[in-house]
Model the fold of this input.
Amino acid sequence: MTEETQRGASARPVFKEDEHLPFWKRWMDTDIWHSYKKSPVIIIASIAFMLLILSAIFAPLISPYTPFDPGSLNLMNGFTEPMSKNDFTGDYFFLGTDDQGRDVFSTILFGLRISLFVGLAAVLFAMTLGVILGLISGYLGGWVDGVIMRVADIQMTFPSIMVAMLLYGVGKGLTPPDLRDEMALVVLIISIGLSEWVQFARTVRGATLVEREKEYVQAGHLIGLSKWAIMLRHILPNVTGPILVIATISLALAIIAEATLSFLGVGAPKTEPSLGTLINVGRQFILSGEWWILLFPSLTLLALALSVNLFGDWLRDVLNPKLR
Amino acid sequence: MSEEIVLTVEDLIVEFPTRKGILRPVDRVNFNIKKGEILGVVGESGAGKSMCGSAIVGLIDRPGRITGGEIRLQNERIDNISHERMRKIRGRRIGMVFQDPLTSLNPLMTVGEQIMETIRVHLKISEAEARQRAIAALEEVGIPAASSRVDAYPHQFSGGMRQRVVIALALAAEPELIIADEPTTALDVSVQAQIMALLKKLCHERGTAVMLITHDMGVIAETTDRVAVLYAGRLAEIGPTKDVLSNPSHPYTIGLMASTPSPTGSTERLSQIPGSMPNLRAIPQGCAFNQRCTKAISACFKHLPILEPVDKTDVACWLYDEAYKDEAAEQSKTQLKEGA
Amino acid sequence: MLAFVIRRVGEALLVLFIVALVSFAMFKFMGDPIQSMVGQEATLVDQEELRERLGLNDPFPVQYVAYLGRVLSGEFGISYRVGLPVEEIILDRLPATLELALLSGLIAISLGIFLGIYTAIRRDGFVAHFIMTTSLIGVSLPTFLIGVFLIWIFAVELNVLPSYGRGETLDVFGVPLSIFTLDGLKSMILPAVTLGLYQMTLIMRLVRSEMLEVLRTDFIRFARARGLSNKAINFRHALKNTLVPVITVTGLQLGSIIAFAIITETVFQWPGVGLLFINAVNVVDIPIMSTYLLLVAVIFVTINLIVDLLYFSIDPRLKVGGGSKGH
Done:
C-alpha cells in the first residue's frame, strides 16, 4: 500500500474478503445478522416475542392461580385492583382480578397460550395446505391449476379475516350443537388456516413453474427418480425465504383474526378464553371503572401482534433488499 | 473543429461505502471533451463507464458519491454545486440519452407533453410556442407526421422511434453536451446505425459535444473522434480514435482490438483476453490489469500506473516507463523464447 | 374495450354463481334449521309441516334452481330466528352500514394516499420514519381494540362522544341516515375512525412502496436527467404511475371496509348488516348468513368491476386503438 502511494496517487481502499470461516462466523457476517444487530427495534421485538412464547409454554408453572378451576375462585375477590392483597391468602393480585375474582395475570397467561396455539396451528395448517396445493397446481398445470388458482383468485378478493369469519360460521353450522364448545378451537384453527393458504400456494406455484422446466427435473425423471422427490428437494429450498416471510406475516394475521373472532364471541369458548375473549369481558367494565380487566389483556395482545409484525416486516426487507 | 473545451473531468473518484469497505467504481479518471467532438468511452460492464456519466450529471445513486477530483463545464465547477443549480444544468446544458428507450419515457404522458415539459422547465416560453418547438424537435429527429404524433403515447412508437424521441428530448433545450449511455444497445441491429448517424449529424450541426458510452467497438470506430478505454474504474488509454484503434499501446486495449472483428474484414482469428475483469471488491495492488496481462513486469504488481503520453495516445502502463524499459524488453524476450 | 367489459362482467357473474352455490349449500347441508326455529313444545307433525313449507324436502338441483329463482326475484328466505323475510331485515340495516363505510372509506383513501406520498418522498426524514413506525402499530392493532380504546378515551374518560348506536337520524328519501344530524354525526365519528384507521394504514403503506418502486424506474431517472424539478417528478410523473396499481388494491380495501364493518358495528352496537351477521352466526341463522355472503359478494364484484374500468381512464396503454404499433 505504501508503495502504491508514490507518484502522487492516493491510496485505494482495501476490501476484505472473508472465506473459509466456520459456519457461525459466516452467519455472523451475513446481511441478516448485521441488519439484526443494527436494529434495536427488531432486537426488542424478537426478545418480546420469545418472552411471550415462553410464558405461554410455562403458563401453568408461572401463573400464581389456576383461573379456570372454579374451586379455587372466590367471588369475594372480584374486582380487586392491581397490586392489592388477596384478603384470604395474603398473596398479591399483581394485575388485579376480574368480576369472578380470577387473577388477571393468570388469565392472561392462559389466554396467551390459547391465542398462540390457535395462531401457530392455523399458520401451520395454512402453510401445509398452501405448499401442497401450490406444488400440485404448478406441477400438474392444466385444469387442476386453473381450478386451484381460480379459487385462490376469488378468495384473494375477500379479506382473510372475513373469509375466516364466514368459514367459522359454516363450520359452526356443520358441527353438531352439543359438540360446538368442544370443537370450537378446531373449527377456529381450520377456518383461520383456510383463510391464509393462498399466499403460500401462489409463491410455491411460481417457484414450481420455474423449476419444472429445468433440465435436472427432466433428467432425474429419465434415470427413474420420482419427479415429486426431485421437485421437493429443489423447490422447497428455493422458497424457504418467501415462505418464512409469509408465515410470519400470516401468524400476525392469524393471531389478530383469532382475537377478533373471540372478541366477537364467535371464537374460543368461554371455558378456554383467549386474549380476545378476555378483552371482550374486560370492555364490559370500563364504564364502571375497572380498567385493568381490559387494559392488560389488550396490551399483551398488542405486544404479541406488534412483535410478530415488526419481525415479519424486517424479515421481508432483509430477504428482499430491492424493496427497501 | 474548435478547440474550445466543453467538459473537463479531472482525477474523478466515485466511491460507494459498504459494510465491508469502500468500493471505488471510478478511480482517478481524467479526460476532456471539446466543442463538437464525440468522445467514446469503452470498457466491459462494470468498468465504470456509466458511473462516470452519472457523476457528471450529478445523478449517482445513494450511497455513492464523488469523493475526489473535479468536473468542469465550460471552466465552471459542477461537481460541488447545489442540487438546485445542478438541476438547472441537467437538460439545459447537459442532455442525456439512456440505453432503453422502452423505459426512458413516462408511459402515461404523450411524447409531446414530455418534450414541452422539458423545454418549459428551462426556457421561458408559452405553451403554444413550446408545442411548436416540440413538433420541430420531433421533425428534426425524423419522426414522420410529427404534428400529429406529438400527441401519441410512447407505447404507440416502435423502439427505434422511441429512441429518436429520447434524443429529441435530450436536445430539446439545446445543451452543450450530450451524454449518451449505450444509446443503441437495446435496439434492433438494423436501427442502431440510423440512430447513431442521427445523433452524430445533430451534434455536428449544433456543435454539441458528446460523451458516448458503449461497449461496441464498431460504434466507436464509426462515430467517435477520440476514445477513452476504462478498465476496473481506471483509464487505461485515451487518444484519437484512429490511433487507438490502429495502434493501441495498453495491453488491455491491444487485447480488446484483437478480440474485435476488423472492419476491413480480415480473416485473422479473433483472440480473447484470458480471465475476466476483477470484481470491484478484489482489485489487485498495482495495475488492475496485472492478473490478465501477458506482459506484466514486477512494477505492475507494486505500483499504480498513471497516464503518460506514448506515441499519439495517453497510456497508463509501466511497459512504456523509462525506468522499466529494460525489464519490459527482457520480459518480452523471455516470452519469445518460451514461445519458440 | 367492449370485449374487455363483457369478459369482466362474465367473470363477475361466474363468481356470483359460485358464491350463490356456496350460500345455497349452507342452507342445504348445515344443521337442521327446524331445530333452531321451533320451540321445545313443537310436535313432530308441526316440524314436518314447517319443513315442507320451507321446501326442505325437495332434491338438491331442484332446490338450487328454486333458490336461484327466489334470489333473482329478491326473495332470500325467512330468518330462522326472527321469522321475517331476510331481504326486509337486510334492507332495513343496509343504510347504516353503507353510510358508515363511505365515511370511513373517504377518510382512509384521502389520508392514506396523502401520507403514502409524503412518506415516500421524505423517506429518510424523521417525520416519515415516525409515521411508518406508528403505522406498523396501526396494522398490528386489531380493529376491535382500536374501537374499544376509542370508546374508553372519548366516551368514558372524556365523555365527549357517544359510545354506541346511530344517534339521531334524518330521513332522506325515506332512508334514515345519521350523517345529516349533529347527534348522528357525533355518533359516527368513533366508528368511522375505527373502521378507517386500519384501511388508511394499509393504503398508506401500499402507496409508499409503489411510489418508491416507481421512483426507481428509468423514466424517473430520465426525467431527472432532463432537469425537471422534484415537484414535477414526484407529482406529475411518479404519482400518476403509482396510482395505477394503487387503484386496484384501494378498491379491494373499500370492499374490506364492508367486511371489517362486522367488527366495528359489533363494538359500537351500530345497527348495520355486520352486526346482524354476527348475531346470525351466534345463533346459526343460516338464511341471514347466506344472504349476507351473497350481498358481500355482490359488493366486492361490483367494486372490482369499477376498478377495472377505472384503469382505462388512467392508463393510455389500455385504450382502444393504442398499442398497435411496435412493442
About this structure: Chain A has a mean pLDDT of 77.
